[in-house]
Design a protein that fits this description.
With 271 residues, the chain is an alpha/beta fold. It has a single domain, classed as NAD(P)-binding Rossmann-like Domain (Rossmann fold). It is built from 10 helices and 7 strands. It has a 7-stranded parallel sheet with strand order 3-2-1-4-5-6-7, sandwiched between helices.
């Protein structure tokens, strides 16, 4: 069901790889709510994924770009403003990758060169997106920038490795840049700490199935799905949240407020 929450708004969605991606769901919901958008992902992801299918479905221009490259990001914003016919109203940063996780490196045995890549791709790219947008004055007043995070930024999750560090940096950037961008341009910057979700990127996390089962049993409302997250992002992009900024918004079915649920206790007490 559409409520026209984004009617007349222009957006950029970073990170839609395939229909398992949260960014993919966000793009679909944004257009359903009346927005026009562009899509961006790395050139290799564009070649390996199916983002071109999404672009055709949503009548969206696909702009290959490395989000760690300032030059590429400048092209994303300038091209988006050209094809969409004006300044941007919302941006989704759904970008995360850890070579250490992919190579199953333990947290106490990290490859530091790979750690630099993790931080650059998964966190510093968010700063670059914001800095480029601000310098280009590419986002309208009360525009909304959202990045996807995870609770491991604040609490230890075994197997999440250096991605936890990246998410902590990501959330810090939202606060620090959110103050400046809000004060200077009235642009709001937030992160959404999503439930563990089955995505192409998330599937690399050790024992993901166990984590999903545990969080489902622990959360009074159950895990938030990718589509649930898309709905939340739409609200954050809309004018209904014009005064929400510099927040890490927990979207996890109540998991983050729990210590022990009856379902989990019952599971552990089975004979």
């Amino acid at each position: 069901m559409s409520y026209n929450l984004l009617k007349g708004k222009r957006g950029i969605i970073f990170g839609a790889l395939n229909d398992m991606s949260i960014a993919w769901k966000v793009a679909e919901r944004a257009v359903e709510e009346g927005a026009i958008i562009t899509l961006s992902n790395t050139p290799i992801a564009v070649r390996m994924g199916t983002t071109d299918e999404l672009a055709k479905k949503l009548n969206a221009t696909l702009i290959p770009a490395d989000a760690t490259s300032v030059t590429d990001l400048e092209n994303v914003f300038s091209t988006s403003m050209e094809v969409l016919g004006g300044k941007i109203d919302f941006v989704l940063h759904s970008i995360g990758m850890s070579p250490n996780v992919r190579k199953k490196k333990a947290y106490d045995d990290l490859d530091y060169d790979l750690l630099s890549t993790t931080l650059d791709v998964s966190a510093v790219s968010f700063h670059k997106v914001l800095q480029v947008a601000k310098k280009m004055d590419a986002i309208n007043e009360y525009g909304s920038v959202v990045a996807l995070s995870y609770l491991a930024a604040q609490r230890t999750v075994a197997g999440y490795s250096d991605m936890a560090d990246a998410k902590a940096v990501l959330e810090s950037i939202a606060r620090s840049f959110g103050y400046i961008y809000g004060k200077d341009k009235k642009v709001r910057v937030n992160t959404i700490s999503q439930s563990p979700t089955v995505t192409t990127a998330g599937s690399g996390v050790k024992d993901l199935d166990g984590l999903l089962d545990y969080s489902e049993r622990m959360s009074p409302l159950g895990n938030a799905s990718a589509m649930d997250c898309a709905d939340y992002c739409v609200v954050m992009f809309s004018d209904l949240t014009r005064k929400v900024t510099m927040q890490n918004l927990l979207h996890d079915g109540g998991f983050s407020s729990m210590t022990m649920s009856a379902d989990v206790m019952h599971q552990y007490c089975k004979e």
